[in-house]
Specification:
Elements lengths: L2 H11 L5 H20 L4 E3 L3 E8 L2 E4 L6 E4 L2 E8 L1 H10 L1
Antiparallel strand pairs: 1-2, 2-5, 3-4
Helix pairs in contact: 1-2
Amino acid sequence: MTKSELIDRLAARFPQLVAKDADFAVKMILDAMAAALSRGDRIEIRGFGSFALNYRPPRIGRNPKSGEKVQVPEKHVPHFKAGKELRERVDLSH
């Protein structure tokens, strides 16, 4: 599902919401989540899952095209862990 599909579904499910308001709401939620992660905070949405940052230390990598060794710097990457309810719902649908 894309962001625009989410906005369309939200506007369809709540007729009192104008599409522009649904768009604003989705953008505000995503911006707040991005800001929280950039501050190093953890995000937990009960029944859905949690977002956190994982630290990846610096390492020596390889350029797949040339085989040359490349220094890869340290970084923090977002990580999502599905909640129990989401895992169970996905499991039942398959």
